[in-house]
Each structure stands twice: as structure tokens, then as C-alpha cells.
Amino acid sequence: MSSIPKLEDNLRAAILAEPDVVLDDKDLMQALVAANERARGDNVIDLRGIAMQRLETRLDRLEDTHRSVIAAAYENLAGTNQIHRAILRLLEPVEFEDFLRALGNDVAEILRVDHITVVLETTVVQNDPAIDRLGGVLTVTEPGFVDRYLSFDRGGPARDVIMREIHQANPMVYGTQSGRLQSEACLKLNLGEGRLPGMIAMGAKDPRHFTPQLGTDLLTFFAGVFERSMRHWLS
């Protein structure tokens, strides 16, 4: 009597009926390859098996890369849709105060940030009740403030888009919200020839919401649309 175990008839019939199922099952194929190696013993080197293992490792890496690319593409598409929705909302108001309120409320919600402030430089800084009515979405500062703020934690000229973690938000920018914000994106605004620069500051409670590793293309596009709208209102 043979000591070699035999497959049950129903299992054998199932494999013969659908052999592709076995070939497509990664874990099952690995078990069969391992059993085959044990049957040959340690003195036999299977070059084809080694090559297959290397190909399998390369395939695993390729699948990981593929998943990463798909995830990045999906995230970029979602971000693009957010920016488009935010811009469309900004284009709706017909009054300047409504424009700024839309930025501080609806646009902030669309972009999933906790606070947005528009910073405008002016040579005459004074209390204005109209600014107070906007709920902190607009603040005015002295000339030079924007460049200093954008570059305070780094040397060299100020960049147009900065994303960073903040340990203590500036009350001049974020007002009463400064105590709860831990990261920010700052977008420098060119408001036209003869005008001082401005800035959009987006603050988030999550310290990882804005980091220097994130891409700036979408925020640059948003800033470009916003500054053109501001030029229209200021003129």
C-alpha cells in the first residue's frame, strides 16, 4: 500500500475543473512551491524557483507603487474639485462684504480649514467698524508685514505660498481664533501696480493639515483667482 496521501475525489475533481483558480491564488501557489522544494531536498538548487521569487518580489513592489499612484491621483482630483468649488462660491457675491463673508464661511468649509483671514497692508492703520463686522476675516497691517510674516521662520525672500506647522498662531492674523490653530497655509497676493501686497492665511487645528511637503499648485491657482477678484473690488 502506498504511503503517499491522496487527494479526496471531490477536491481533485474541483481542481481539475478549475485549475486557473489554483494558479491565481498567491498563497496556494507559494505553499505548492514550498512543498516542491522540501521534496527535492537541500542539495538541489532550483534556478527557476529563485527567478520566480525575484519576479514575485518585483511584482509586489510594482503593485505597491500602483496603489500609491492611484491614491495620489485620487487625492489630487479631490483637491482640485475642492478648489473649483471654492472659486465658484467666491464668484457669486455682488457686494464686497458678502465676498469676504463667503471666504470666511462657505469657502473655509469647502476647503476644510478652521479659519481664513485676508491680510491687507495699508499706510493708515485704524479701527474700522466695518472690519469688525466681518468677524475676523479681514485685518489690516502696516507696510512690510506680509513679507516678514511669510519669512519669519526661514531666511531669504518670502515665497508666494508657505505651508507650515505653527506652535503659537499670531493674534494679529487670526484674532480670537489664534489659540486653537496649529498649522497654516499663507498665500501672498499681488493686488496690482501701485498697491501694497496682501495675504490669505488659512489656519487649521490639525498640526499636520498643512506641511511643507504638500504641493502648492492648487493653492497658487486659488490665490491667483482671488487676487484678481480683489483687484476688481479695490478698483
Would you give an account of this structure?
The chain is an alpha+beta fold. The protein has 9 helices and 5 strands; from the N terminus they run H-H-H-H-H-E-H-E-H-E-H-E-E-H. The protein has a 5-stranded mixed β-sheet with strand order 2-1-5-4-3, sandwiched between helices. Strand 1 (115-121), helix 6 (129-132) and strand 2 form a beta-alpha-beta unit. It is elongated, with a radius of gyration of 30 Å. The N and C termini lie far apart (100 Å). The mean pLDDT is 83.
Number of strands: 5
Strand order of the largest sheet: 2-1-5-4-3
- Report the order of strands and helices: HHHHHEHEHEHEEH
Number of discrete helical segments = 9
Q: Which secondary-structure class do the elements indicate?
A: alpha+beta
Radius of gyration (Å): 30 Å
Shape: elongated
**How many strands, which pairing sense, and closed or not: the largest β-sheet?**
5 strands, mixed
- Fraction of residues in helix: 40-55%
Low-confidence stretches: none
Query: What is the first-to-last residue Cα distance?
Result: 100 Å
Which range does the strand content fall in?
5-15%
Task: Give average pLDDT, whole number.
Answer: 83
